[in-house]
Design brief:
With about 170 residues, this protein is mainly α. It is about 60% helix and about 10% strand.
């Protein structure tokens, strides 16, 4: 029993030190979101270079570099979300880079990172219009998007088409 009593203060000191050190080593959600946004900014620059590049080989390299930067940003955004759930929109937008062209995500990525720059997490403003479809290097055509509603629903439905059908309520 005496041994236990003598070791108790030492054990308490070790546990307290470990707890304090663990708290010092973790970063806040805001700091992690800002780190993710540094990668996002580089990714956007690479993506914009990709769109402007006329050489298919270097354009493909720029696109891969942009994608790699989003890949670097994702774990940081996930850690930020784990620390503070209000960074979920940043993480989710970055994740969409696996499914959607980055060109569609740039407005939301910029808005999310602006929130990180100002230290105010939350949902960015939702654009009222769809961004133009990103073009690929050397391409001069883009698809036309139309919105139509049906009489059974008031929710607009977005459908890709090459012509607008006047009878569809466009």
């Amino acid at each position: 029993m005496r041994r236990f009593v003598a070791l108790a203060p030492a054990a308490s000191a070790v546990v307290l030190s470990a707890t304090l050190l663990a708290g010092c080593s973790t970063q806040s959600g805001l700091a992690l979101a800002r780190q993710a946004c540094a990668h996002v900014a580089v990714s956007i620059r690479y993506y914009q270079q990709y769109v402007k590049d006329t050489d298919p080989t270097t354009a493909a390299q720029k696109l891969q570099q942009a994608y790699n930067q989003l890949g670097e940003a994702l774990p940081l955004a996930a850690q930020a979300t784990s620390d503070d759930g209000s960074w979920n929109e940043l993480m989710t937008t970055i994740q969409e880079g696996n499914r959607v062209s980055e060109g569609y995500l740039i407005p939301s990525l910029r808005a999310s990172c602006q929130n990180a720059a100002t230290g105010t997490p939350g949902l960015p403003l939702i654009p009222k219009n769809l961004p133009p479809e990103p073009s690929t290097p050397g391409s001069s055509t883009t698809a036309v998007r139309s919105t139509s509603t049906t009489s059974s629903s008031s929710t607009p439905r977005v459908t890709p088409s090459s012509t607008v059908n006047p009878g569809a309520g466009n």
